[in-house]
Write a structure and sequence with these properties.
Layout lengths: L1 E6 L7 H15 L3 E6 L25 H11 L4 H12 L2 E7 L7 H10 L29 E7 L16 H14 L4 E2 L3 E4 L6 H16 L12 H5 E2 L4 E2 L30 E2 L10
Length: 284
């Protein structure tokens, strides 16, 4: 397979950097072709502005969605954005790797999404009518490909549990897994989450590394998160409301959009590691 890792951490010697290297070595050992977009090292520009649309007339009002659509269709997006789109089309698997900062991804990675997921490429695709509302949520340009997250968090696993103070990790990652990856068509695999990332010793890292190797070995066979397909009959079009009676009795919030809510729950997946030691602090 062809695997693209989009890496968002400013320190190569961080726990994230070490885990990235483990993943790359294992993927290459399995015969996969790996490319890495190292956003900090490459000086990725995160903000969207007029510079993204060089063909936009200087006196024209900037409407980002409209300008993105026009530039994508005309082939006038900037070279850095075009390069990332080409990588996404090349890759069978996309891995986004980042530390969980303030309950989300670092700004540089969000900016990568903002600029690369252009109108006509990642959204605004397909027929919009009273029977279909575009090719999205399970369909779209990137359908048939797989994606997953590798995430480090400084807090304890219990803090990100169903009753934890930080909220369930699945809910925190839902906007990324469902809203960024599933939206343009990816089959989204359960995330690989490492907790207490700033309290790792050598033994904890060895365990995390082995679990990550296992996940890299099973990229092609791991069952994706069972999100409902938008155009699969579960939603009323065009209101996009879930049809009554489809949810399980205990389903609330984001869990409504899981076809089998009991099969999610990243905190219970084998790729999730929690360190309980306090011997060597590293940058998450």
């Amino acid at each position: 397979m062809k695997v693209l890792i989009v890496f968002a951490h400013p320190e190569a010697r961080s726990l994230n950097g070490s885990l990235r290297d483990v993943a790359i070595r294992e993927l290459e050992a399995q015969g996969h072709d790996v490319r890495v977009s190292d956003l900090y090292a490459e000086g990725w520009r995160s903000e969207v502005d007029r510079g993204d649309f060089p063909s936009l007339p200087i006196d024209a009002r900037l409407g980002v969605a409209a300008a993105s659509k026009q530039a994508f269709e005309a082939g006038t997006l900037t070279a850095d954005v075009k390069g990332e789109i080409e990588k996404l089309l090349w890759a069978d698997v996309l891995i986004l790797q980042f530390p969980l900062w303030w309950f989300s991804m670092p700004a540089i990675l969000k900016g990568w999404v903002d600029r690369v997921f252009a109108y006509g490429f990642a959204y605004g695709v397909g027929e919009h009518s009273d029977k279909r509302w575009g090719d999205r949520y399970g369909e779209g340009t990137l359908a048939g490909k797989r994606a997953m997250l590798i995430v480090t968090a400084g807090g304890w696993q219990d803090h990100y549990s169903a009753r934890g103070i930080n909220g369930p990790i699945d809910d925190l990652l839902f906007p990324i897994n469902h809203g960024i990856l599933y939206y343009p068509g990816y089959d989204v695999l359960p995330p690989f989450v490492v907790y207490q990332a700033d309290r790792f010793d050598d033994a904890a890292f060895a365990a995390a590394a082995e679990r990550l190797r296992m996940r890299m070995r099973t990229l092609a066979t791991t069952s994706p998160i069972p999100y409902r397909r938008q155009n699969g009959g579960d939603y009323v079009i065009p209101s996009m409301q879930l049809r009554a009676g489809l949810e399980s009795p205990e389903a609330r919030g984001f869990a409504l959009h899981l076809d089998r809510p009991d099969e999610c729950g990243a905190a219970d997946k084998p790729g999730v590691i929690r360190s309980t030691t306090n011997l060597r602090a590293v940058t998450a």
